[in-house]
Amino acid sequence: MQALILLLWTGAFLGHGSSQNTGGSLEEGSPAPDTTGIPVEEEDPFFKVPVNKLAGAISNFGYDLYRVRSSMSPAANVLMSPLSVATALSALSLGAGQRTESTIHRALYYDLINNANIHSTYKELLATVTAPQKNLDSAFRIMFERKLRIKTSFVSPLEKSYGTRPRFLTGNPHVDLREINNWVQAQTKGKIASSTREMPNGISILLLGVAYFKGQWVTKFDTRKTSLADFHLDEERTVRVPMMSDPKAVLRYGLDSDLNCKIAQLPLTGSMSIIFFLPQKPTQNLTMIEESLTSEFVHDIDRELKTVQAVLTIPKLKLSYEGEVTKSLQEMTLQSLFDSPDFSKITGKPIKLTQVEHRAGFEWNEDGAGTAPSPGGQPARLTFPLDYHLNQPFIFVLRDTDTGALLFIGKILDPRGT
């Protein structure tokens, strides 16, 4: 069993299970173990709430999508907001026949959810994570080939549960690209740059997911303490980047001995938080950490980390991504959507998914709500001075605390940009 360990005067130990299973629990103060030796796995009460269970399912899709994207770009930064892609696929499934609907639902882990009202629950989830205080702009669009006749039986539930209507391409690549850019600008309040990529010909169905986030820390950083410092790309190469610092940061922390990484969580306003996974060595491959990421594991981390005071340094970050995730989805058991799907609930004409586009912007700086340490109990007394320096490649997860939804995920090999 992997061990997530926090070295305190109290001697508390934390554990989690294998990379694809749910996590363990805080051992100190737990009841005596079952003497039969047979582990009894009960569903966490958190995931019994329908909206949280749905968030966990699509988050697992998000971690799957991230892993594929990361493996395709082993030497590059990765930035994704899988929620916007999952939402587009979930909405598209409203128009799918049983065979294709099952394919989409399995990829989204809906087959593990006993929820007859999955789309109405999704509406509740979207309302929660895009509430104004969350500072998250997330939207999607389904676009069809020109002059396609669409059934009202598809449009009505699409509008009811997802608040959108399908759009139609004109067939003119320049006009279509301009309309998409205008829509992206409107959805993100102009924070994501217009695309200059050419629209391909012969599109049948185009899915577009877009997301932008600029969060506020619960405790802001002092801009006077931000300075250029070394970021170690590996053991031999370093770059100078603006690093924010707080010599008395209050954060939540744990050390995972099996993954050989230090984990820290910083709270953001709006019931959001970022969890950082920092390897012990700059040259450590991040794959083991990536393979461990599931909604259950991350939820257990959130539950088990302990509040500590530490010397913290973190790079200022402003990243963006624009491109296709078509090939990634094809690698994830969704190839049939691009070959011979059944979208008979949309139209009587044979159509198929042609392209899936994703645009994302993400940034953090010193901005915060206040100067006092965030609430959450007194920091634990440590047996050693704790430093947490994000000055080498790391992974971060932006998570909605209320639902557990994965909103953004990033692999930062070089904080200067994607």
TrEMBL record:
Belongs to the serpin family. This is Pigment epithelium-derived factor. Keywords: Glycoprotein, Secreted, Signal. The keyword Iron does not apply. Residues 20-41 are annotated as: Disordered. The keyword Iron does not apply. SUPFAM superfamilies: Serpins (SSF56574).
